[in-house]
């Protein structure tokens, strides 16, 4: 059953076995990149919590984190990687088939 495959994929993946991380990954799949500030507003997490989630997904290779200089200081930019897009596509495929 496709739902079983989806549950196994998420449970076996430490970077995605937290619902907020899964939500961030799927959101970035559609927009491709986002500023840290925008992710704070979207997720309503505090800075430390969001950073820890992004760091875990970055470590797994799903996200690329870079810092861009701006007139008001450095800003964090988060971009989904090819690996992140691959996993997001697989999750969305399994979600579509499980309905």
From TrEMBL:
Residue ranges constituting the Winged helix DNA-binding domain according to the UniProt record: 20-95
Any Pfam family matching the protein: HTH_34
Superkingdom classification of source: Archaea
InterPro entries: WH-like_DNA-bd_sf, WH_DNA-bd_dom, WH_DNA-bd_sf
Name of the featured protein: Winged helix DNA-binding domain-containing protein
Source organism: Sulfolobus acidocaldarius
